[in-house]
Amino acid sequence: MLGLSLLVQTGASLGNTSIGPLAPVLGRDLALSSAQLGLIVTAFYLGAIGVLLFAATAADRWGPRRLFLAGPALIAGGLLAASRAPSFGQLLLFMAVAGVGNGIALPPTTRAVMEWFGPAGRGSAMSIKQTGLPLAGLLVALAVPLGLGQVGWRGSLALIAALTLASGALAFAFYRDAPGGHAPEAAPGGGLASLARDPRLLAVTGFATIMSGIQLALIGFLVLYFHRALGYPLLLAGELLALAQVSGVVARIVSGVLSDRLFGARRQPVLVLMAGAAIAGSAALALAPAGTPLVLVAGVMILLGFSAVGWSGVSMALVAELAGRERSSAAAGVALTGSYLGVIVTPPLFGLLIDLTGGYRISFAALALLGVLAFGFARLAGDPSPRPSLSTTEA
User: Fold this and answer.
1) Cβ neighbour number for residue 137 with a 10 Å cutoff
2) pTM, whole model, 2 decimals?
């Protein structure tokens, strides 16, 4: 069942992570500025943020299975329409539709992990599930530069739509609820309002908001940075982005194991470490001189992948544990709403700074400053007090 949750997480993330690799050709075809390219990502997440809390509540009430199909199906429809959009305005509209599907698809993946895994292995399981986003980013970073030469950005987006639909159909066909999956565990009561008043959850949500913005700004603009500012071929630029995504996939798994075993199921120390590494990586890009050796650039990509891409698994595990199993999807919806606010704001502002300054240094320096805020939120976040829970079946 963990594999099916990962499949949905990955399939639902293919569309939004494809914008960065598509950007050089898409931007040239539609004559878009850097700020406009950032707005494509914003449109996707605006669509998602409008339904996150509804989807989270629905997953807690009805279970994950039906949403595993509905979300990817809507994403696929939006992406297919976007692949045929004749103008920038219509492209934004259809990407927002795809974003609605993303908002429906993701909260039930957290519910599934909470149902099937107990506290001892939950951090590792959640981190594996959360590798879906960087895994999707890795796939599109490697495949899209090759596909652009064969079918262009429109054909590439249509193929991504088909893969997204297939992921949801497979998950719907094979997912089963855990035995006793809807039985609540002992946890404080209350609805969304009580979750929003929890200072620890608010701190984790603040951390996620900042780190999501950093992550999507990097994913959306690194290929452009390597290609336009450093003069790298598109294939090499895509490979460097893929390197960051691979590092993020590994980091999400390793961070979950570390939090479970090294830190005794404590999540906060890992979040502090991730924020510090994101500050260092962003500052390195801001300060890197022209002609920096490729091996050093690759090293920075590994560091940023570890931090700015790898943070989400442990963060989502902490969010779910703070809320308890019966409210895990609702808590995920609150945290994802904050995360998507960061994604909505940061990439277009990052692109606007590039347009205004004519370069990337100020934009990367701004990301480093945002990392300092994330570090502060991580320090304020706290792990839940130990509490008894129902045994769950691992799968």
Assistant:
1) 29
2) 0.73
For residue 385, is it within any domain? no
CA neighbor of 16 nearest in space, from 71, 87, 89? 71
For 298-317, how does the pLDDT look when each residue is reduced to its tens digit (9 = 90+)? 999 999 999 998 888 888 88
C-beta separation of 74 from 100 below 8 A: yes
Q: What is the mean pLDDT of residues 47-57?
A: 85
DSSP states of 159-187 as a string? HHHHHHHHHHHHHHHH--PPTTTTSPPS-
- How many structural domains are present in the chain? 1
Judge whether 395 lies within some domain.
no
**Main-chain dihedrals φ then ψ at residue 337, nearest 5 degrees:** -60, -45
Q: What is the dihedral of CA 145, 170, 46, 147, to 10 degrees?
A: 10
Nearest CA to 109 out of 3, 181, 5, 2 is that of 5
Distances (CA, A) of 105 to 68, 101, 198: 6, 6, 25
Supply the range of the domain harboring residue 205.
Answer: 2-177+192-380
- 316: domain CATH number is 1.20.1250.20
Could you tell me if residue 86 is inside a domain? Answer: yes
Report angle CA 323, 326, 328 to the nearest 5 degrees: 45
Q: 120 in a domain, yes or no?
A: yes
SS3 87: coil
Q: Write the pLDDT tens digit of every residue in 346-369.
A: 988 998 999 999 899 999 999 999
The chain-wide mean pLDDT, for the chain, equals: 85
